[in-house]
Amino acid sequence: NFLDHFLIHVPSVDLWLAPTEPDMRNGFIPSTWSENDGLFIKKISVGAVTSGIGKVKHIPAMTPEMSHHNTYATVNFDGNFDEIKLHLKQDIAGYHASFQPYYSFLTDDKKKDIQNAYLKSIGADAMLSNVNIVDHLLDTSKYHSMILEADITINSLVEHAGNKYLFKIGILLGEQSQLYNEKPRLNPIDITSESVYHRELVFNIPDGYKIENLKDLNLDFEVTEGGKTETYFKSSYVVTGNKVTVSIIENYGQINYPLSKYEEFKKVINAAADFNKVVLVIEKNN
């Protein structure tokens, strides 16, 4: 009488199906159904009699890699720092691509809304060209990613400040959520689903210029639970000649966190918002 939702589990490939939910594909089930207990019923037959044996077991959460949102940006400055030209690629899957099962049925206007949501998230003045969208839902691509990419011209990411230039590199992450509580936290933490965000931002320091505050790109926050670190935000950079490669991984590898981990969790959530505010100061060499 209390079984409201029905799943099919295929043990041989550990695949989950939610047959009543048409927007759940590729082994995904509604996130609120996972990280839960379920009544597993296995059919048995004895002679001419067929029945079922039930056992309560755990329904695990989908892994972070199955529900990812990865961003890759390659940035080029023009000679006068008046604008930036960049190639932006967004690779999304799982709960981050919840519209994917019905994308092919959308009108062109609705498709453009989705395109702009992912490719113009770095600024309303972003001008797109060479837009390419690849939907892997119906092929054998791992996790059935959806790829949205374009060449972009934008000027709001650079500002002049006297003889210096301010490069708002953090905006390339898009808008980030923040977690601030004025009142003491009373309850443990539940998040919707496990997920991972990988970002790679690449740019060249123009000849004759330098950046003194590259260290602002380094952030490292984590939640350690039971000796394991499955939730963290880590950003770092590598300089090769004039080329700077920034790598960022934000991983949420569990659903539930005890109240005692709230302050650590809050720092991980807010780290992305803090990176959002990072501005690199570009100035001429002395």
Which helices and strands, and how do they pair?
Elements: E1 8-10, E2 15-17, E3 36-46, E4 49-59, E5 69-77, E6 84-92, H1 108-119, E7 127-135, E8 146-154, E9 158-161, E10 164-167, E11 189-190, E12 195-204, E13 209-211, E14 219-225, E15 228-240, E16 243-252, E17 256-257, H2 262-276, E18 280-284
Parallel strand pairs: 5-12
Antiparallel strand pairs: 1-2, 3-4, 5-6, 6-8, 7-8, 9-10, 10-18, 11-17, 12-16, 13-18, 14-15, 15-16
Explained architecture:
- It is a single chain.
- With 286 residues, this protein is mostly beta strands.
- Helix content is 9%, strand content 43%.
- The chain contains two helices and 18 strands.
- The chain has helices at residues 108-119, 262-276; strands spanning 8-10, 15-17, 36-46, 49-59, 69-77, 84-92, 127-135, 146-154, 158-161, 164-167, 189-190, 195-204, 209-211, 219-225, 228-240, 243-252, 256-257, 280-284.
- The strands form five sheets. Strands 7-8-6-5-12-16-15-14 form an eight-stranded mixed sheet, covered by helices on one side.
- Strand 3 and strand 4 form a beta hairpin.
- The longest helix has 15 residues, at 262-276.
- The protein is elongated, with a radius of gyration of 23 Å.
- The N and C termini lie far apart (77 Å).
- The model has no long low-confidence stretch (mean pLDDT 90).
